[in-house]
Amino acid sequence: MDLFNSALGKNITFVRPAYFIISGFIGIPNVKYYYVFLCFVYLVSVLGNTAVMAVIILDHNLRTPKYIAVFNLAFADLFGSSALVPKVLDIFLFNHHRIIYNNCLTFMFFCYTCLSMQALNLVALAYDRLVAIIFPLHYQVKVTHRFMFSLIASFWLFIITVTLIAVGLLTRLSYCQSVVVNSYFCDHGQIYKLACNDKTPNIVIGGLLPILILWFPLVFILVSYSCIGYALSKVATFQERLKAFKTCTAHLSLVIIYFLPILITFTMSAKIHPNARIINLSLTSVFPPMLNPIIYVLQTQEIKVSVKTLLKIRKQSKITVKKVMIK
Predict the structure, then answer these.
(1) 36-41 contact pairs (CB < 8 A, 24+)
(2) Which one is predicted more confidently, 312 or 8?
(3) Looking at residues 128-143, what average pLDDT do you find?
(4) Residue scoring higher pLDDT (314 or 228)
(5) What is the CA radius of gyration of the chain?
(6) 281-302: pLDDT as tens digits
(7) How far is 73 from 77, CA to CA, in rounded Å?
(8) Dihedral angle over CA of 74, 80, 82, 83, nearest 10
(9) Which secondary structure element, helix H or strand E, spans residue 6, and what is its range?
(10) Number of C-beta neighbours around residue 26 at 10 A
C-alpha cells in the first residue's frame, strides 16, 4: 500500500485506529431476533446454491456456456453470503463489535467483491439471452465455452481491481475522532466519512463504483431486453413470443430482486433513517443469494428436468442396492 501512502515523494504520517466499532441498529429492542432470521436466510442460501452448483457439475447436459454463468452466480452468492453473514452474526450475537483495522478492510473487500460480481453475472446472462433470441443461428458460434469463461474471468479481474483500489485508498486516511461505523459491516462510505484528512480520492471512487458496478450493468441489461422485446415483436405468432420470453423469466426475476432494493437504498441513502438503511442493505445482501437458486430451479426447465433425472437415478440406485442386499 506504499503507493497510496505517499504524495509527491514526501513521507506522510497517517493516524490509523487499532480497530473500528460496528454500531449496527440504534434503539431497536430484541434486535437479535433479526440476526437469527439472517442466519436462517444464510442457511437456505448455502443449501440452495450448493445444490445448484452440484446439479450443474453432475449433469453433463448443463455444461453449456449459459450454465457456466449460472454456476458462477451461485458460487459468488455462496462466497459472498459466507463472507458476510457469519461475521455479522459474530459481531452482533456475540457482542464482538470491535474489529481490527486490517480485518475490517479485508472484510470489506470480500463483501464488495462478491456483491458486485452478482451484478456482472446478470450482465453475462443478459448477453446470453440477447444472442440466443436475436441471433439463434449464430448462438453456438458467438457464445462458446471459451468466450463465457473469458467473460467471467474478466469480470472477476475487473471487480477485484476496482475493489482493491477503493480499499487501498482508505489506507491513506487518518482517523482522529470517532471510529464508530454506522452500519452492520465495514461499509466503505461510512468508514471514509470518519476520516479527518483529505477524502477527495475516496469520494471520487465512492461515486464511481456505483456507476461501474450498478448503473452500467443495469443500463446494459435494459438495452438488451429492449432489443429482445423489439425482436420478439416481429415474431409471427403469440405462442412463439411466449416460448422465447419464458427463457428470460428467471433472469428477469433475478434482475428485479437484485437491482430494485439496492438502487432504492443508494438513491435515498441521505433521506432514510440509518436503521432503515441497514435493514435495506442487509436484506439486499442476503435475499438475492437465497432466492436465486430457488428461482432457477422453479423457472428453468433444464434444471427442473436435471433435478428430476438425478433424483430418479439416485432412487433407482437405492432400489438396486436393496435388491443386491436381499439376494
Answers:
(1) 36/93, 38/85, 38/88, 38/89, 38/282, 38/286, 39/85, 39/89, 41/85, 41/286, 41/287, 41/290
(2) 312
(3) 90
(4) 228
(5) 23
(6) 888 888 889 988 888 766 777 7
(7) 6
(8) 160
(9) strand 6-7
(10) 11
Residue type, 274: P
Ordered DSSP codes for 53-122:
HHHHHH-GGG-SHHHHHHHHHHHHHHHHHHHHHHHHHHHHHTT--EEEHHHHHHHHHHHHHHHHHHHHHH
Number of Cβ within 10 Å of residue 28's Cβ equals 12
DSSP one-letter code for 269 = T
In our burial notation (b when 16+ CB lie closer than 10 A, e otherwise), range 247-284 reads bbebbbbbbebbbebbeebbeeeeeeeeeebbbbbbbb
Cα end-to-end distance, the chain, whole Å: 69
Q: What's the average model confidence in pLDDT over 50-55?
A: 90
Q: Alpha-carbon distance 136 to 134, whole Å?
A: 6
Contact of 57 with 276, CB cutoff 8 Å: no
- Which has the closest alpha carbon to 22: 84, 114, 115, 113? 84
> Do residues 40 and 121 lie in contact, with contact meaning Cβ atoms separated by under 8 Å?
no
Distance CA 302, CA 132 (A): 15
pLDDT, averaged across the chain: 85
Give the pairing of strands 98-100 and 180-181. unpaired
pLDDT at position 101, please? 95
Mean pLDDT, residues 95-100 taken together: 91
Neighbours of 109 (CB within 10 A): 19
- Burial string for 141-163 (b: 16+ CB within 10 Å, else e) reads eebeeeebeebbeebeeebeebb
Cell 430494485 found at:
260
3-state secondary structure of 172: coil
Lowest-confidence segment of 35-39, 47-51, 60-64 by average pLDDT: 60-64
